[in-house]
Write a structure and sequence with these properties.
elongated
Length: 450
């Protein structure tokens, strides 16, 4: 989380500094309309910079994933950048429209304009001739972007429709990029600000084209076929086993992948709930009925059906040298720990984790299925992991105090949490209050891609 916050703030600070350096006449902007022109330039720059980086992150690039802590964190930054662009763009629009409305109502008087000197630079003259078009199409692209971003933030908006409409933001971005190129002060293009904006716009435009061509993650996609479907009615989950005979690079326990079984629904992210061995190229997903799509999977999936899988992604991979790890799986958040235990059972003869490192797994759930719990217990025994199952209606809620009581050497451990965000935040605060270094040793997957 710290890195994505630094990235967001860094983008704003960097562009703000470059804008100030490229605007030597700023102190002379003493009239309202002169100040308005500067505010519109600044707000337009910040909004488009945020939107450009968000567009590039939409491609799910691999190179920044480790630094940011995983694709789940990158998607959180993508969301924050979208909100930043939305808010700043609204400010930009209000400064563009508000004074015009005030002049129309007689509240402001537009200053008289003298004759403008002829523009000798042919490129600048050409840009100037397109200003009216850029303003007009930019305004309509802004309205479209506001609606599309707002829909993306409404969790009740169905994913299958979001999947289709969100792609249209790439088209709105291309129009707004044209708007920016034409309306940015021409002299700014010859400054460091112009260089940075050119790079951001070029990256954003290329990313938008890839999105519109539906080529996001195309090089990391493989085809698989469903070979087993195991329902667990008591916990309303479905285990899906998929053969991936060629192309899959392998995955580490705790990573996730995008799976698509229905092109009209689009790809959904799921944590991989199985270890990996190239001699048995299979991937298992365990999905819980949490919405329209997952609720219909048990009726829509069938044996032999082809599935497209993209990945793997994520950095929730249990990498540390602590002598002990505490794993906490809330509800369906148990899936990365199942994968880890299966990995440990497969590689027990040649472990790729620190010698002597052990783990306690806490599984907090409100639903139970005896078959599923028996399989979980068998995985724990095979991996030599201490399992603690707490059913809320029977055992009460899992708290930090209960974890510390069960694991006396918790101060030397790392904590790995996957589950409801509120539950994770509460545990993090609880351990922080006890002096636990949560910034370094509390790892939490943010499995919300909207």
């Amino acid at each position: 989380m710290r890195h994505i916050k630094l990235t967001l703030v860094g983008i704003i600070v960097l562009l703000s500094g470059l804008w100030l350096a490229a605007t030597p006449g700023l102190p002379q902007a003493t009239t309202f309309f002169a100040a308005r022109a500067q505010v519109m330039q600044y707000s337009g720059i910040i909004a488009m910079a945020a939107m450009s980086v968000a567009m590039m992150l939409a491609l799910r690039p691999r190179w920044p994933e480790r630094w940011m802590g995983g694709l789940d964190k990158m998607y959180r930054l993508h969301k924050w950048l979208g909100i930043t662009a939305l808010v700043v763009a609204i400010v930009h629009w209000l400064w563009a429209k508000g004074p015009k409305w005030a002049v129309g109502f007689g509240l402001l008087e537009r200053p008289a304009r003298g004759p403008r000197p002829p523009i000798e630079n042919p490129v600048e003259a050409y840009f100037s001739s397109l200003r009216g078009t850029a303003e007009s199409v930019g305004e309509w692209a802004f309205y479209a972007a506001v609606v599309l971003i707002a829909l993306a933030l409404i969790r009740a908006f169905p994913y299958r429709i979001f999947y289709k409409t969100h792609r249209l933001l790439a088209l709105a971005y291309l129009v707004l990029a044209f708007h920016t190129v034409i309306l940015l002060n021409f002299g700014s293009w010859l400054t460091p600000l112009g260089g940075v904006m050119a790079v951001l716009l070029a990256g954003g435009i290329l990313s938008a084209v890839v999105v519109l061509l539906r080529r996001v993650g195309a090089g990391r996609q493989v085809k698989g076929r469903i070979v087993a479907l195991v329902p667990y009615p008591g916990i309303r989950t479905l285990e899906t086993v998929i053969d991936v005979p060629t192309g899959w690079p392998g995955h580490r326990p705790g990573q996730f992948a995008f799976a698509m079984s229905d092109s009209s629904e689009g790809a959904h992210p799921y944590t991989i709930a199985s270890g990996w061995h190239p001699d048995q190229p299979r991937i298992t997903f365990i999905t819980k009925e949490l919405g329209d799509h997952t609720g219909r999977l048990k009726d829509k999936l069938r044996l032999g059906q082809e599935v497209r899988i993209e990945g793997p992604y994520g950095c929730f991979t249990f990498d540390d040298d602590c002598p002990h790890q505490i794993w906490i799986g809330g509800g369906i958040g148990i899936t990365p720990f199942i994968a880890r235990m299966q990995h440990m059972a497969l590689h027990g003869d040649a472990p790729d984790w620190p010698q002597g490192q052990d783990a306690d797994l806490f599984h907090a759930t409100s639903d139970t299925d005896e078959t599923a719990l028996a399989k979980l217990a068998a995985d724990a025994r095979a991996a030599e992991v201490r399992l603690h199952v707490l059913v809320s209606g029977r055992d009460g809620h899992l708290t930090g105090a209960r974890i510390r009581e069960a694991v006396p050497h918790w101060r030397e451990a790392s904590i790995w949490f996957c589950g409801p965000a509120g539950f994770g935040a509460a545990l993090k605060r609880d351990f922080a209050a006890q002096g636990f270094p949560v910034d370094q040793r509390f790892h939490q997957e943010m499995f919300e891609m909207r």
